Every structure is written in C-alpha cells, then in structure tokens.
Amino acid sequence: MSNTRDQRLAATFVSLADTLVADFDVLDFLGMLTERAVELLEVDAAGVILADQRGGWRPAAGSSENSGLVEVFAAQTQQGPCLDCVRTGELVLSMDLAADVERWPQFAPFATSAGFRAACAVPMRLRDDIIGALTLLRAAAGPVDRDSIALGQALADVATIGILQQRAVSRQEILSEQLQATLYRRTVIEQAKGVLAERGDIDMHAAYTLLRDYARGSRRRLSDVARDLANGDLDAAQLLASDVSRGD
C-alpha cells in the first residue's frame, strides 16, 4: 500500500468517525463512504442499503448515480448478496455472478447485464443490530482481494458506529426514526436530480454531482438543497449556472 493510499485511508477513517457535528448529513456521509470504497478497495462500484421501519431494505447511497448502477442496488433489496448479507449478518461473496444464476435467478442476470461479474457484501452492524450492508462490485470475475474485504468491513463498521453515535437516543429510535427519515430524504434527492436532469439536459449522475457540489459550496445540507429544488424554492437555472456547482 502506497503512502498516498495510506494517507487517503487514514483521512477516510477520520471523516467517517467525525459525525458529532451540528450539520451532519447522513446521506452525504454514506455517499462519501461508497465513493471512498471505490477509491481505496480496488472495486468498480459500491453501494449501501439500509433498513426501513417496516422491516424492509432500501438503497440509500451509491458510488455513482448512473442509472444502471442505481437499478442494480435497487434490485438488491429484493434478491442478491446484499440482501443475504443483512439477513444473515455475515459476509456474502460471489466470484462470478454469471455462475450464480441458480443462487440469485433474478439478480445475477440483472447485475451481469449492467457490467458486473463479482460481488462482495459486508454487514453494517453493531453487536446484534444490523442496520444495512455495504456492497462492493467488480467488473471482472474472480475473488475480491482479502485486504479489500477486510478494509471494506472496517469502513462499514466505522460508518455504522458513526451513524448510531450521532444521535443521543436509543438504538431502536435510531433504527425506526433516524434511518427512516434518511430514506425519505433520499426520495427528495431523487426528485431534485430529476428536476436538474430535465432542466439541464444532463444525466442523473451529473445532476447529483451538481446538487452535491452546490450544497457543499453553499455550506448547506444536501437534503435541504434537494428539498428546496424539488419544492421550487430554489431555481434549477440558478444552480445549473452556479460557479460553485460547476466547480469553476
């Protein structure tokens, strides 16, 4: 591992541990987790699903807002390594999704058609409470590197502790209220992405990047900016033309 990667990894753990701040945004936090997982773990994509208050599982973040990847992670809430992982609380691996059609008859063909051949899902858990899972995807078939799996689990562990520690309430309240609110805000972000994509004639990933960069540049929470945009309180043209959102 290079010194640069060591430094990046150390910075990532510091960022994931630093959740006790007034403007903590769990969606931006999970987005950072998936993006850093791709950068550090030699995988091609990463995503997180979280528990909702009805006992189901929903996608909460991905390393890209590419429509194909978003659909893959949405499909995982019905079948696949991520769902098996949250049900068992254990690591779930697939070295070749094309050979796992019997295991996951709906998910495996869907994932391979999106360009992914190997998968690894690690639980986001604290003792007996499983709040979700982090899935790592690779375009090439073959085993996911053991060091990458170990680091992925470590990242998931720190992220889980950070989310649970961020609220000074009981664990059950966090699971049923905080995480449910997170999933609701994710729906608002999807609506805002659609507004930007249509107004700017751009793809969904570019729309998400503009939305996130605008929120960071204006020192506002991602979910608050998305809500204002979806409600019409923030003009999409203003955001599209903004130097902050374009990184100029």
TrEMBL record:
SUPFAM superfamilies: CheY-like, GAF domain-like. InterPro entries: ANTAR (IPR005561), CheY-like_superfamily (IPR011006), GAF (IPR003018), GAF-like_dom_sf (IPR029016), GAF_ANTAR (IPR012074), WH-like_DNA-bd_sf (IPR036388). Keywords: Kinase, Transcription, Transcription regulation, Transferase. GO terms for molecular function: kinase activity; RNA binding. Transmembrane segments: none annotated. Residues 169-230 form the ANTAR domain. Pfam families: ANTAR, GAF_2. This is Transcriptional regulator. The lineage of its organism: Bacteria, Bacillati, Actinomycetota, Actinomycetes, Micromonosporales.
